[in-house]
Amino acid sequence: MDKNVLVIYTGGTIGMIKDPLTGALTPFNFDALYRHIPILENFNCRIDTHCFDPLIDSSNMNPAFWVSLAEVIEENYERYDGFVVLHGTDTMAYTASVLSFMLENLNKPVVFTGSQLPMGVLRTDGRENFINAIEIASAHEDDTPIVPEVSICFENRLMRGNRTNKFNAENFNAFLSGNYPLLAQVGVHIRYNQQYILKPNFKKLKVHRNLDPNVAILKLFPGITENVVKSILNIHGLKALILETYGAGNAPTDKWFLDALADAVNRGITIFNVTQCKGGSVEMGKYETSAQLEGIGVVGGYDITTESAIAKTMFLLGEGYTGSELSKRLQSPLRGELTAE
Q1: Run of H or E including 113
Q2: How far is Cα 169 from Cα 336, in angstroms, rounded to an integer?
Q3: What is the three-class DSSP state of 127?
Q4: Per mean pLDDT, which range of 202-216, 275-289, 314-328 is the poorest?
Q5: What's this model's pTM, rounded to 2 decimal places?
Q6: Which of 11, 33, 180, 221 is a Cys-bridge partner for 55, taking CB atoms 3.0 to 4.6 Å apart?
Q7: 178 near 278, Cβ under 8 Å?
Q8: Positive or negative, the Cα torsion across 163, 167, 169, 171?
Q9: Could you confirm whether 253 is annotated as catalytic?
C-alpha cells in the first residue's frame, strides 16, 4: 500500500536554492518538488508539502512557533503515515526535543532534517538528508511504522530527537547523540536498531500546547562570580534553572555559591543539574562537590542534554507541575530522553 508523507518546511538552509537570474539564494519551491528531485517519484509514497508563511530562521525559534508546528502535525495526523520537518540546524535539537514532549502518544514518525549547505548548491548535503528522511518517515513493517517517535536524520544517521545536540557548525556530520545509540544507520540499506526505538502504544495523539519559558541556563566556569550567579537566580519570574555543571555533576563548594543556590531552592526555584559534557551522566553524590548540591535540593539530570532539559522543563512547568512533583518528573523518563540510574 502506498504511504502518505507530509513535508513541513519551517525555514532553514535546506530549503534554499540559487536563483539562476540573480545568483541569490531564495526559498525552494516545494510545489515543484518532483521536478527538483525527480528520484522521489521512485518512492512508494505520496509526498505533500506544508510551508510556513513566513518562514523562520531557526535562530528565531520560540515556543509560539513550536505550538504552531505541533498543531500542523495534529491537524494532519490522521491523513498521513509520517512527517518530515525541514528545519534550520542551529536549534533543531531544541525543537525536536520539545516536540517529543508536546506530542504525547505519538505513533507515527516525525523526522527532522536539514542541511549545512543549501539544496541548490552543488555539494549540498540537503538532497541526501531529505531523501533519507522521506524513506524513514514512510517505512513500515506489518503496517506499523518502524520509527514512531521524533527523530533527527542527518548525514546517514538517525538519532532520537531529544537525545541530540549540534556539535559542529561546519562538518556535514553536525549532530551528536552522545548518550544514546543510533536508531538507524543509512548505507546501502537502512539498518534499524529496533531495540533502541520506542514502541507504539496505539493510543490517541494528545497535543500539549502550554509551554512556560520562565527558565534560564547557568553554565559554570572557573572564576564565575557571586554577582553573576545571584543576578541569574534573582531574575524576576524565574521558576527553574538548568545548571550546567562540570563532569559528573560537580560544582564549586564555596559557601557563597551553595548559599545562593539554597536560597533559590527555598524560594521555590527548581534547579536541574545537567553536565556540560557531550557524553556521560550526572551522578549526584559521587564526589563531595556534587553531594553538597544534592543536600540543598538540586535535582540530578542523569544523562539528559541541555536542549532536552530546557524543553522538558518548559513542558512540565506548562503542565502546572511545581515543587517535589516537578522534580520527580524531571528525573523520570517521559519520551526516552534520559536514562535514570
Answers
A1: strand 110-113
A2: 26
A3: helix
A4: 275-289
A5: 0.93
A6: 11
A7: yes
A8: negative
A9: no
